[in-house]
Amino acid sequence: MQIALWQTRPQPGIDPALSALDQAARAAAQAGADLLVTPEMALGGYNIGAAQVAANAERAGEVAEALSAIARRHGIALTAGLALPSPGARPYNACLAIDATGRELARYHKVQLFGEVDAAQFTPGDALSPVFELAGWKLALAICYDIEFPELARGLALRGAELIVTPTANMVPFSSVNTRLVPARAEENTTCIAYCNYVGAEGAFTYNGLSCACGADGEDIARAPAAEESLLSATFDRAALAQARRAQPYLSARRADLYQGQP
Q: How far, in Å, CA of 179 to CA of 232, rounded?
């Protein structure tokens, strides 16, 4: 499966973001990608304040329809970050997975909120991502801080995920997440990871780029630069996935009887 990671600067509002995403989807489809991945909260911005996040969530239905139209127009699947309404006082920090026909495959709400910005803007989700099929692969979703928790990635792998798609808004000075933790999550679970970040500044944050596609052996298949916009292309190979799982049988060798609370 070929994917494209859209490492972009935060777009100033939903409508400019949809326009920029439409252009990225066209370019990714022309390059042969099956799936385009956006950063966290790509449709409207991440560090924009609770009032604006809430206003963006009110447009969620309209945004979802626009995403489906973009997917159909260019014949490419999308995983896109956006605000979705919640039953709580604040919206969800969410991601939608949409196939190339415009059909929604999955939606996920970030469960591990990061710091004061997340706490002020969002309601945490209460469930792991569903595992869904796309282009012959089993995919699951995580958002930014989620992937830094070993239990979350392991839980998705044990549910059958072969690729964890992870929109993020990671910032300076936390580049060790991009370069060390994300490859570790891939290797320790023999599960591929696509990690798509911003570059540039948004409020007090300076984003650190370094979007990456990691194979199930933890090695980079592709990695973007730290400070430049990029439409990063990567191909995940089923034979390589199988080889990694033969070489490091972590999932089958684990002593499940010793780990309470794990499935």
A: 16
CA distance 211 to 198: 8
Q: Does any domain span residue 181?
A: yes
- 18 three-class SS: helix
CATH number at residue 203: 3.60.110.10
| Residues constituting the chain | 263
Instruction: Report H helices in 197-261.
Output: 238-247, 250-253
Q: Which domain holds residue 214?
A: 2-254
What stretch of H or E contains 194? strand 192-196
In a domain, 259, yes or no: no
Distance (Å, whole) CA 148 – CA 259: 19
Distance CA 12, CA 14 (A): 7
With respect to residue 249, please indicate whether it lies within any of the assigned structural domains: yes
Q: Do 207 and 197 contact (CB within 8 A), yes or no?
A: yes
Contact residues for 54 (Cβ-Cβ < 8 A; gap 6+): 83, 90, 91
CB 209 within 8 A of CB 226: yes
Asked if residue 112 lies in contact with residue 145, where contact means CB atoms within 8 angstroms, the answer is yes
The two tokens of residue 206 are 């300076």
pLDDT means per 10 residues, the chain with 263 residues, are 98 96 98 98 97 98 98 98 97 98 98 96 98 98 98 97 98 98 98 98 97 98 97 98 96 87 58
Q: Which residues are catalytic?
A: 40, 110, 144
Place of tokens 């944050």: 205
Q: How far apart are CA 147 and CA 161, in angstroms?
A: 13
Number of domains in the chain: 1
Q: What dihedral angle (degrees, nearest 10) is formed by the CA atoms of 90, 65, 200, 86? A: 10
